[in-house]
Each structure stands twice: as structure tokens, then as C-alpha cells.
Amino acid sequence: MGSNGKKENNAAELKSHFSYSKIADALSDYDDAEYVIFGVPFDNTSSFRRGSRLSPNSIRYAYNNLESYEVNYNVNLLDCNICDLGDLPVYEDVDYVLSDVETVTDMIFRDNKIPIMLGGEHSITVGAIRNLKDVSMVIIDAHSDFRDSYMDNKYNHACVTRRALELLGKNRIISIGTRSTSYEEVTAEEYKDVRFISANEVRQSGIDKIINEVKNKTGDKVYFSIDMDGIDPAYAPGVGTPEPYGLTDVDVRSILNSVSKKIVGYDIVEMTPLYDNGNTSMLAAKLIQDFIASRASTGP
Ligand code: MN
Ligand code: MN
Known about the structure:
- The chain contains 10 helices and 10 strands.
- It is an alpha/beta fold.
- It has one domain: Arginase, Chain A, CATH 3.40.800.
- Helix 9 packs parallel to helix 10.
- It is globular.
- About 50% of the residues are buried.
- The structure holds manganese (II) ion (MN) (2 copies).
- The site of one manganese (II) ion (MN) has 8 residues, from loops.
């Protein structure tokens, strides 16, 4: 691949040979970037299978196996102005980590760029949405995450949707894929203030009906959070708290595509390479590409 007058851009391939600390398509500096990727390797409140702290680099490693050109959208990811800042240093204290996430996402939002946060566990999402007002939220998750507190901690990953409701307000949050919740959560008065769409309801209604509802019930700005356990363990086995009977990978892609042009912030959390056969990190990587490419596409 000598120069010899060839003008092709070898930067992505060359980068993939040397380091996995940044995804290969992330050729932009922060100043020129539209999308800002960063990892938050934190899994301290996880209750069952730990290891999501290891996932940012396993997602990057998987991503670097993908083509930069996305044929489904006719988009070249190399033209999409992506920057990868690397990983946030994290410590043991969840309050500290959330405030750090709040600080960095605030800067990214104020610069009119879109953060793409790679967890780590789901609790980190709360830090990102603290900066947002008048925003709808779409969550993909097997769990309702609606406990007021868990293991004496209001910022446990089992409390994410409850904290999001307090931050964003009623009738702004749609959580899709629900199939694990407690009696305490379902009977909480505030439970009805979030639209929980169970995985069974998605199967019974069909994905088109769900997409219509998601489009109609979200405003101009959407924060999109993918807890990888929302997807069925057949597609995404490498998660901290797997639940059978989940969403398909294609359903999640369709929901994501339906609102991608309204998304102001995005995260992929709860993936753990310790229990993965490689498919979960690859799907997580693909969901980064699907987000950026569907947003960049000139199609409907
Ligand atoms: Mn969750
Ligand atoms: Mn979950």
C-alpha cells in the first residue's frame, strides 16, 4: 500500500494495527468532532456478574473488525467526524464517578457534540442526563431499574430509571424490553410515570407499532441508553445480569434507527467480556455504527 499516487485513506486501517485505545474510525480531533466516544470502566455497584469495567476496550477491539463503510446506510464512517477520548479514570466511589461523568458530558453537550458513552455499568447514565432539560429518554433494558434504593445506595445500577424520572420528569421516559422487576417497583406510585414496554408486548404488538409509539411519545431531543441485557442472551450473552426472553438485535436496531436523528446523547452499558463469546462486544460495536450511520444517512 505505497503511495504511488493513490489517494485512499489508510488511517483507519493503520490505526487498527497499533492500538485499541481508540476506535479505528475515530479520526477527528475533539474540536472537529460531531461524535465524542469515551469509556467509563466502572462496575462497582453491580450485583451479580462483574466485569463491565473491562468492556470499553473489548467493544473497541470488536469495532475495529467492522468495515468503515456502512452499506445499509450508504455512509462512510470515516466522514462522520468521530473522536475517541479514551477512558475516564474511575475510582471506587459511585458519587465521584457520576459527578465526573456529569462534568465531561456537560462540556460535550455545551460544545454541541454528541457523547457516546461506553460503560461500565448502567449507573453512569445518571451522570450524563443530569445536564439535560426538556429531553425524552429511550432505555433498552430487561430490568425496570426502578428501585428507590438498592444495597443502601440510590445510585446503584438497579435505580437508574427511578433517578432518570426525578431528573427528566413524567411521561418522558420509555423503557423497552422489560421482563424483570420487583413487586416493590411495580406497585410504586411513580411506576406509571414511565412507559415500560415489556419484551412480551413488543412480540405481541409487533415492532412497527412499538416504533410508532416511540416516535410519537418522544420530543425533538432524545437521550438513548442501551443496557445490553435488554437484548436476548442468545444475541448478547456477555452481560452482568442476563434475562431470558428478550428483544432481538434487529428490533433494537429498528428502535434506534427510528429516533437516531433526534438523539443528543447515547450510551451502551452493562456488557461484560468475562461472560462473552465475542458476540456481545461485536453487537455493541455495531450499535455504535448503526447509531452514527443512521443519523448521518440522508434516507428517511
Ligand atoms: Mn439497567
Ligand atoms: Mn438491565
